[in-house]
Each structure stands twice: as structure tokens, then as C-alpha cells.
What does this fold into?
Amino acid sequence: VEAPHLAQIDAHNHAVNAVISLDREGARSQAKMADAAQARGEALGPLHGVPFTLKDMHETSGMKTTVGFLPFADYVARYDSPIVIRLRAAGGVLMAKTNVATMLGDWQSNNPLFGRTSNPWNLERTAGGSSGGAAAALCSGMTPFDVGTDMQDSIRLPASFCGVYGLKPTEHRVSLAGAFPDPEGAARSVRLMSCLGPLARSVEDLALIYQIIAGPDGSDTDLAPVPVEAMLKLDLKSLRIAFAPSFPGFPVADDISAAVESLASQLQRAGAVVEEAKLPKLDLHDDLERGSALIGMMLEAAQPEPPEEPTSISHWFEALARRDQSILAWDRFFENWDALLCPVAMTNAFPHCEPGTPIKVDGKEQSYWMLPAYGAVFNYSGHPALSMPCGLDSAGLPVGLQLVGRRWSEARLLGIARAIEPLTGGFRRPPAY
It folds into this structure.
């Protein structure tokens, strides 16, 4: 393993608490094999000898998968998940897991097994969740990339809080097989809205990892057989970008909406066609509630004992039909636009707190449960979306903005982000790291 990553872990992880289950000797052994292969003139793949970490929810043989949940404290899967198999086959060296919210159920990464992850930009603030350990490890130089899950902004929100890139692909683009501990081999209940995607420090890295992990894998039958294309090289002058400083009725910090407007102006000056978005005629608050209800129905199906009033199959189909209306409305919106530029979350990294505590946004208390709203809209619709770092706010914290595209258009969406990267300055490492 490249010494700098272990050195960063040794120097900073005691304070940040991003990396857990470190397999130092196993990683060194894999790295030596990669060196030996290189000496023989053999290439192991695009990640030859590159160390990486994984969010603590991927099933990995020989390494614990706990999702921060006491009953899974000692669980070790018998097999690697398809994602892990692909990353190893590409030559990657798995070093460790990264910390999460308990059962991936919060927008802060804290659990009874490993404790709380802090934001390297300000240790008094959260790194976000549930992929907070991944984002914090990345921005502090402990790992080159990670793969998270995103059911309600869980990749994009921590990426935004820590100033790194994070991609939520189109739903059913990346395998969900083995994406949660499953000691009993139970029927998979989470089949909608949740997506696996990479977190990285550049668009190039994001695109590389996405290409490795995306596409049918022989395990997840929901995956669409759509070609996984390389990131497109695009000129800003050829693009049509809609922007939304906020969504109707959604709170947002002034620094974030100002960053959206500032980047929109820069894009216009660079030659793109840029207009303030006329968003689909949808009740987005209603979409959030319906999305949460769908998640609740899926989690209900995973319980060992059914509830007193279980969801009827007709209720499930009604929920899917209502969701279809939103998917199609956003599909029509993207017939006219290459991408939508908008906030990732209502605020930047906030001080550690008990889940449910109202969050201050420009001094005004807002509902904790609105934290992921801007991202969760696109979990409900299934469209690909990424978070990209766009400078710092007035408190010196990273500002992340969201870029959303047409379904199945990751190659184009990544290309747009790559074209924008020079305007934003891309990733910057926090002071003292």
C-alpha cells in the first residue's frame, strides 16, 4: 500500500474517526503481490496496486461488515459482493472499511460500535451520513476512493459536507447484491431508490470507478443491460444548463443559493445556454413523503415479524404508479436540458447533534428531516445526480452543488462535471491534512 495513505490514517484517524476495520497486513500483502506482478511485466487492471476503502455495508470475505449495528458486530461474509469482486479484479487493494450511521439510517455517521466521525474541515461538525466515513477519509487523504450507498442523499450530502465528489447513478445501474449484511440469505427487500456509487477527489477518478462497478453482474436481476460508456469530452459551449437556487418550500442557506447563481453566471460567460429552471409541476414535499413511505414499505418487508397492519399489494402498486408520474415529469424536463444545477442539501456541515434536533440555517431553525430533501427528490425519480465541490462558504466550510441529468446519462453527466471543474477549482484539501 502506498505509505502516504497509511501515514494519513495513523496521523489523523484518531481525531476524525473515519476509517474502521483496518487490515494493514492484508493490504501490505496485496500490495506486494501487485509489485511482483509489475516486476514481471503484468498489469492487474486499471487499479493496479491502488489502495481503497469501502463503506461498512459491502459484504467482504475476511473483513467485518457491521453497518454500525450491534447484532452485526462480528459478522464476516463468506463471499465478496459483486462490487468488491470487480474492484479487486481491477487490481485494487482493499485497506479498510469506513464508518457509517447505524444501519445507514441518519445524515450523521455515528454508531454504538465505532462512535462518531467528524469533519476534517472542522472537528466540531459532522462529516454527514450515511457515507460520512468515506467522505471524511477521502478529503483527509486517507484513501483515494470509496463506494457508498445513496437512498436519501447518503453519498451526495457527505461528499458536499467534506468537499469531495460523489455520484448517485441512475437507479438499477450498479448492483445492489451484497450491499448489506445478510447472514441468513433472506429475500432482498431494498430494490428501489437505493443506489451504489463512488466518492472521489476528482471527476476523472469518479468516472473511472463508476465504469468499473456499473452494469449487469449476474447477481442483481434488476440491473438494466444499458451500455456503460466512458465519460464524454464536452465543451461548455455545447451545453444547456438549467439552474435552481432552491426548490419551492425547501429551505436553503444563502451561501448555497448564492453559489448556484454564481456558478450559473460563470457557465453563461463560458458559453453555455443557461436559464433558471421551470421545474416540473410536482408537489416536491409530497414526493419526499411518498419516497419515505416507499422506503418504509420495503423495510417493513424485511422485518422478521409482520406489522399488525401490513401494506397491501394494491397499496404498493398505487405507490409505484404515483412514483411513475414523477419519474416521467423529470424525464420530460430533461428533454430540454443537459443538466440541472441545484443545491445538494439545505445547509453545509452542521455541528454534531442528536438526530432530529432542528438545524439552524442562516440563524433560523429548520426541520432535521429536511436535510436530504434536495437529493432525495432524485432518489424518488431515479435520475443520476452528483455532488461537486464549489469553493467554501463564509464560515470556511465546503460548499457542494448538485448536478442532475437524464436517466442512463452518467457518461454525459460526468463529462459536464469535468467541463465545469476548472470553473470551481475542484477538490481542495482541508488545512492541516
Remarks:
- The two ends are 19 Å apart (CA to CA).
